[in-house]
TrEMBL record:
GO MF term list: chromatin binding
Domain BAH span(s) in chain numbering: 20-162
InterPro entries tied to this protein: BAH_dom (IPR001025), Znf_FYVE_PHD (IPR011011)
Protein name: BAH domain-containing protein
Amino acid sequence: MYLLFIKASMRAESETLSVVVVPSSKAIGKRSRHELTEIELWRGRILEIRIPTSRTRSRNDNQANEQPKDVWVIVAWYYSPLTYKTMGVPTDQRGYRKGDFGKRELIFTPTHTDPVHIDTLNGTEAILDYDEKDYDQDDIPEEAFYKRSVYDTVHQIWEDGPPTRECICKQTFKVYDDQEMHYCPRAGCHKWYHEACLEKHDFMIRERALRKFEDEWEATFDEEWLGDIKEEVDALPRGNSIEIPKRLESYARRPIMKGGKHGVNGNAAATFRARWIIHQARKEVPIPDKYKDFCKYKRRSKSNGGAQAKERVRRSTMVHFEPYKQGPFLYCFICPSCKKAI
Ligand SMILES: [Zn+2]
Ligand SMILES: [Zn+2]
C-alpha cells in the first residue's frame, strides 16, 4: 500500500465536500468530453483524501515545496436520474420509478465508493439537502443540485426516501420542474395536490363571500403534527392584546401552496404559525409582540459565514394569492380526501 490516510481532523472537514468528476467519454457514449452537459457530470462526496507516503515517493517528489503527484480521494457517489441504469440500480423493484425524481435531483449512495485521482476532479459543488417534510426547509435555488434520498447499494434498501407520491395522480413533487400544489393540513390528511389535478377532477366549491373560505383556512391547525410550532410560540414574549391584527389575519387566511412561482417552500411555514397564534388568541391568550417577525422570518446559519454567523431569511415564498372569480362566485379547491376547503 502506498496510500496514506490524511489526518482525522482534515478528514472531518472534507466529509461534506462534494466534487464533480468528469466521466470518461466512453462511460456516457461516443460524444467527447466537451459536449457533456452539466447534468452528465458525476458527483460524489469526498470521504477521505489519500496521499503517498514519503517512503514510496520518488526522490523528485520529496523535494521541498513540491506537491505529491499521486493524490487520490475516496468518493461516495450521488446517482442522478441519468445514471440509474449505468450504475446498476434496479428501477422498478426498489420502490421507486425513474420519474419520481427531479431533473437536478441526486440520490446519495454512501455505500458505493471509489478511489478517484484528483486530476479527474472538475471542481466542487454544493449538493443541497431537501427535506420535503420540513416546512421550514431552506429554499433551493433554481440551478442547484439537491438530494432528498439515500440508498444503500449493498443491502439494496432506502435509508431515506424514495420521495413520497402525492396527489390523486400519485406523482412526487419535483423541485422547480413542477406545477403549483395545494396542501390539506388537517389531521389524517397532510397531503399535497396539484392545482391542475384538482381542477381536472372538479374538486372545487364556490361561494359568494371570500370570508367563508378564509374562516375555513384559518381554522385548520393539527396540534399533534405541529408540536414544534406550539413550543416556539409558547417561548415568545407576550403582548397584552388578544385583538387579532389584520396583518396576522392575512397570513393565516389563505390556502397553503408550494411549487411553481411559490417555490419549494411556499407559504406553509408562515401560515401555520399565524394560524396557531390566532387559534390561541381566540382562547384569550395574548398575541406575541413580535408576531410579524416570527411568522415571516427565520434565522439560519450563513452558508459562507463563521460558526456564529446567522442570517435572516423569509419563511414564506408565496408572493400573493387571489382566489379565482367568475361572475358573483369565488372558487376554492377542496381536499379529495376530507372534502373540505384547502
Ligand atoms: Zn396530481
Ligand atoms: Zn383533507
